[in-house]
Amino acid sequence: MDLMRPLALVAALLAVCAAAAEGFDILQILGKHDEFSQFCKLLNETHLAGDINRDRTITVLAVANGDMGHLTSSHYSLGTIRHILELHVVADYYDEKKLKQLSHGATAASTLFQRSGFAPGMAGYVNITQHRGGKVTFIVDDAADSVKPVTFVKQIESHRYDYSVLQVSSVLSSQEAEAPVAPPAPVNLTDLLSKKYCKSFAGLLAAYTKAFDTINGTKDTALTLFCPVDAAVAAFMPKFKNLTAKAKTAILLYHAVPDYYSMQFLKSNKGKVTTLATTSVAKKDYTYEAQTEADTVTLDTTVTTSTIQATVRDDDPLAIYAVSNFLQPKELFKSKTKDLAPAPAPEGPKKKTKKKPSNTSAAAAPADDEAADGPAADDSADDAADKAGAAPSLLARWITAAATVAAALALAA
């Protein structure tokens, strides 16, 4: 019996470590429960899921399919549905225990609707009240007098002080959130790029229809485009002209991200960025690292480093930023990290062998994914490098988990 208690504690701690490492994905959490499929679908269609995942210290009030009411009908526009769903995202942490231990039995909590800038006064606040018998209710501050509060049903999932997903009995009502939202005006991507900083890049996109159609077809759903300034395009053109047609399309798509990244998000987060080239070119990575140094956002491809110089547009679902250099992927160009690798140790003397005549005609043209200044390493070498780079991070996580478990065992002894 004494042995089982420490083992149970170890298992619990390892589970916590695994959950923290995986991160928070609201669609993945709700996707485990069929009864929230409609709520999950709307979070995805309104792009609110991405904003929820990027936030921290957050509580999502999910509604089951049978309780969604008219929210699933065509009564509201997608913009209005987003505002209503924002009421269900509380900018604070509440799990079942905290709800039932509210100080003074009630509190007012801010929501993502209040933070959106579309909620005047107290319209974006939700009043949470604990009643006798343990019942907990939610009601929006500007709800009409005839509106009944929604009730806490159960806790779905939580990670203490980080995120919590709770079920409530029905959709929250707010006069301001339910107000009609006009659809966004159509955006002409070529005109927008040509007016500010990116005229040369706009010309490149217009010349390569496949890349332009892919990027332009994404701008109305979710798109972040990093366009090199005119001077950067001019400096890169000698290399660009020597690329194959397939590589030219890939490098243009490499500047586009199929998600909306506001400047605020870019400055407060860092990590690997997945591009349209990633989803368009088979068996290729085509990602780069985004990070912030001294309030400057930097994009590092391992071949080149580029910084954001100006904001062309930052309005969900479209963000366009002018960057200092043409982004060059390691899949097409030699990586700086490879060039800095230590030289191999000298080998012993080798026997002289006769050289075979080379086939010059076969080597004359570069392969589809090769650049003028030399091809990148093959896929197997790239995979090995990725695994080598991931090893220290994985080792560090296991060391941290082991230290936590050792401490827990010491306390349990």
UniProtKB/TrEMBL annotation:
Location of this chain's protein in the cell: Cell membrane
Transmembrane intervals: none
GO CC terms in record: plasma membrane; side of membrane
Annotated membrane topology: Lipid-anchor; GPI-anchor
Pfam families to which the protein is assigned, alphabetical: Fasciclin (PF02469)
Domain FAS1: 23-172, 185-327
Signal peptide: 1-23
Renumbered residue ranges of the record's region Disordered: 337-387
Keywords: Cell membrane, Glycoprotein, GPI-anchor, Lipoprotein, Membrane, Signal
Record has RNA-binding as a keyword: no
Classification via InterPro entries: FAS1_dom_sf (IPR036378), FAS1_domain (IPR000782), Plant_FLA (IPR033254)
Family: Belongs to the fasciclin-like AGP family.
PANTHER family assigned: FASCICLIN-LIKE ARABINOGALACTAN PROTEIN (PTHR32382), OS08G0321000 PROTEIN (PTHR32382:SF80)
Protein name: Fasciclin-like arabinogalactan protein 2
Organism: Panicum miliaceum (Proso millet)
